[in-house]
Each structure stands twice: as C-alpha cells, then as structure tokens.
C-alpha cells in the first residue's frame, strides 16, 4: 500500500505552495484573445460554441479560460445540440476541485475523455438517433488543449513556423489505424455498392454506414464508433498564434495550409469570413460550412491583427518539441524564447482504460468512490476497476482505480467490441 499512500500525498499540494505558484504565473504576461466566426448553412446541422468567460475558480477573474467548439451533426441535429449544451459541464465535472493552473491543465486531457464519454452515454440514453463530430478547444493563456472526435479539424498557424494540425481526422477513408480498430472490434468497413456491384463513395462502417470512426451519439451504428477523443495540448511561444477550427465544409475544399494562408493579416472576425468565402469559391456550398478563428496575441502587440510570417526561417524545422521530464520549466522558457510551440500532451487511443490511466483520484471529497466517467458515487462493493479483466491484466492493477459504475463498465466493454452483437443498452 506504500504506492497508494505516496500517490495520495502527491495529490495534496499544500495551499501555500499552490498560492505561490499561482502568484508566479500571474506575473507572466497574459495574451489577449480575439475571435471571429462565420457560417454558411446547407443542412442546418453545424453548431458552434464560443464561451470566453469560464472560470477555473468561481469568482476569480484571473482564473478565466475560454472554450471554442465546432459540432457537425449528421442524421439530424439532436446530438450536436445536446453536446453543445452539456459537454462543457461534463468535462468540468470530471476535474478535481481546488487545483492550481498547472495541475488543472494536467488533469484536463483525462477530464475531456470522461466528459466526452459521459455526454455520449447520456445522449444515447435519451433514445434519439443522430450523431455529431465535436472539436472542443480550451484556451488558458498560452496553453491550448484540443479534444476531438470526427473530422472537424483545428489547425495552428504561428509566426515563423509551419501550419500544424492539432486534431486527427477520424475518417475511415483516411485513417488506417481506425479502420483496423473498427474491424478488430467486429465492424465491417466497405463502400456502398450499387446495382451491378460497383462500389461508390467513401469507406463506411457497417452496421450504420457512417464514414466516421468516432463521434458522439449514433446509437444506431456499431458501438465501436466511440466517443473517445484524440487530445492534444500545446503551449504557444510568446509570439502567440492563430487557431482555425472548422467543419469539413472547409476542409473538403481547402488544405490546412490554404486555409491559414487565405486569411493571414486579417483580424479574426474578417479572417473567419474569408476562410468560409475561400472554401465556397473553391467548391461551392455543398455542405454546412462553419469556421471559428481565434487569435492568441502577445500583450505588447495586442492591437495589431495576427501578422503573416516574415521570410521563411531556415531554422524553423523544429516546430514541436516534446516536454522532457527533467527541467521542464527551464526548457519551456527556452523554447518560448525561440518561438517554438511546446507539445505538452498527445494521446489518441480508443481504449478507455489507457485514457483514464491509473493515477486518477477516484475518491470524491467525501471519501466515497466515484465513477471516473459519470461521476456518480459508488458503494464500496460496486466499483469495478477500469483495469479489471482487461487483456493487459498481466501488467495492470485490477485492484486500483480509476473505478467505473456498472453502466460505464458495460459501455467500455461495448466500445471494445466485447458486448455480444445485437445487445444494446438503450
Ligand atoms: Zn459511470
């Protein structure tokens, strides 16, 4: 039990230490956020969300962070609307209380996974069909955390660096890994066949015929279409950067590079409109087309719009640099000084156990066990470790948390293709 005690001690940061850390980060200059959005509707299934007044600590304006999201619905708009209304609360509900900024940011990737799965589970329990992509972006000062299912991409354009993609496209057509996962979980991947046996259109997954391998909702497709998001967290350098978040109406018409270039030099509001205009010019209005542009602007040039990079820098090859475990802060400062975006976290596994890890604090403030996904309290006999009975059980710890309630355990099995086909919990 030594390791458990250690873990427990590690979770408790003395208040004084927390405050002093907070004060230090207060002294670092805060970037200014500017954003704009634009949309052209064809089916009325694209939704977006902008919330710039969220607070990590209620009533403390210096703990403010912003959320931007694009939700591209299919087979109806119910899943997109439900996710827009509930996902943020589900993510925040999965974050332990009383964390300082750094701890909070570290806990975010796990909370995003729990929040996505909970939203999916609760939407499905309403018995409505339809599904949605979600690209959910949290901006806390210089740190950008993106969680996504589906194919609504988020890109980052930084001065002097190449354009980088902060999401992966969960499209069966383009994602070999996801194709393999779906097939291994019992799904069939193929194209629509028309009379005469000719195959048409993109790769789809059967049952259901969805082109995406991950989404929220979609209770009428195979359960291997999972809501577990790809998550990436980066820290921008002090030159800031521009995020472009958009539905596939944009990305089917423009490459990431083209979208970034088309709006450089314009302020965020005009930039979003320009990206949509450019996509329509290239391809016409074939689909709902929605775009959010977010500029993260250093304090000393907060009035100027995001400027295009000057001449291509020969030494820009190193865009992302993984955080090393030793001396992370020192490294971070150095990277920031040379304008390099630091990658803090990246994980795309579709396996819930891998995503919830084993350092999760599985006790509520009252000391009760809670479900790591839906946050309900568990009776001592009720919690099932996320690691129990897994194929990795040789190396995992079935007696340790995080724990899941029976419902969430059931959902986990279904997502891994372990539930007998045809049996579905509505
Ligand atoms: Zn649960």
From TrEMBL:
SUPFAM superfamilies, sorted: PP2C-like
Keywords attached to this entry: Hydrolase, Magnesium, Manganese, Metal-binding, Protein phosphatase
PROSITE patterns: PPM_2
Gene3D superfamilies: PPM-type phosphatase domain (3.60.40.10)
GO MF entries: metal ion binding; protein serine/threonine phosphatase activity
Reaction(s) catalysed by this chain's protein: O-phospho-L-seryl-[protein] + H2O = L-seryl-[protein] + phosphate; O-phospho-L-threonyl-[protein] + H2O = L-threonyl-[protein] + phosphate
Classification via Pfam families: PP2C
CDD domains: PP2Cc
Family indicated by similarity: Belongs to the PP2C family.
Protein name: protein-serine/threonine phosphatase
Biological source species: Actinidia rufa
């Amino acid at each position: 039990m030594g390791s458990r005690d250690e873990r427990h001690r590690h979770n408790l940061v003395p208040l004084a230490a927390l405050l002093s850390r907070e004060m230090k980060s207060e002294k670092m200059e805060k970037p200014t956020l500017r954003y704009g959005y634009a949309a052209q509707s064809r089916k009325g299934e694209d939704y977006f969300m902008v919330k710039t007044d969220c607070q990590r600590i209620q009533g403390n304006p210096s703990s403010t962070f912003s959320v931007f999201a694009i939700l591209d619905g299919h087979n109806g708009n119910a899943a997109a609307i439900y996710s827009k209304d509930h996902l943020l609360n589900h993510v925040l509900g999965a974050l332990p209380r009383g964390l300082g900024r750094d701890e909070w940011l570290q806990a975010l990737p796990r909370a995003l996974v729990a929040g996505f799965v909970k939203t999916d589970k609760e939407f499905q329990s309403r018995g409505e069909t339809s599904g949605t992509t979600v690209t959910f972006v949290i901006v806390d000062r210089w740190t950008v955390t993106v969680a996504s299912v589906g194919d609504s991409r988020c890109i980052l354009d930084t001065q002097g660096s190449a354009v980088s993609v902060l999401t992966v496209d969960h499209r069966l057509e383009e994602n070999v890994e996801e194709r393999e996962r779906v097939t291994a979980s019992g799904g069939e991947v193929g194209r629509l066949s028309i009379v005469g046996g000719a195959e048409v259109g993109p790769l789809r997954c059967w049952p259901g015929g969805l082109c995406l391998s991950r989404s929220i909702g979609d209770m009428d497709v195979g359960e291997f279409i999972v809501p577990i998001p790809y998550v990436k967290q980066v820290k921008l350098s002090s030159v800031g950067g521009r995020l472009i978040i958009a539905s596939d109406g944009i990305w089917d018409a423009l490459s990431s590079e083209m979208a970034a270039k088309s709006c450089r030099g314009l302020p965020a509001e005009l930039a979003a409109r320009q990206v949509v205009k450019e996509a329509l010019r290239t391809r016409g209005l074939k689909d709902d087309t929605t775009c959010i542009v977010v500029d993260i602007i250093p304090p000393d040039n907060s009035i100027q719009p995001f400027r295009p990079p000057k001449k291509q820098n020969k030494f820009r090859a190193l865009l992302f640099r993984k955080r090393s475990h030793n001396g992370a802060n020192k490294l971070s400062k150095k990277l920031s000084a040379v304008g390099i975006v630091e990658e803090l976290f990246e994980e795309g596994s579709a396996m819930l156990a891998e995503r919830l890890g084993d350092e999760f604090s599985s006790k509520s403030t009252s000391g009760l066990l809670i479900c790591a996904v839906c946050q309900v309290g568990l009776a001592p006999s009720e919690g099932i470790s996320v690691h129990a009975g897994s194929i990795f059980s040789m190396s995992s710890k079935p007696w340790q948390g995080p724990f899941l309630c029976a419902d969430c355990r059931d959902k986990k099995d279904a997502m891994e293709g372990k539930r007998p086909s045809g049996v579905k919990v509505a």
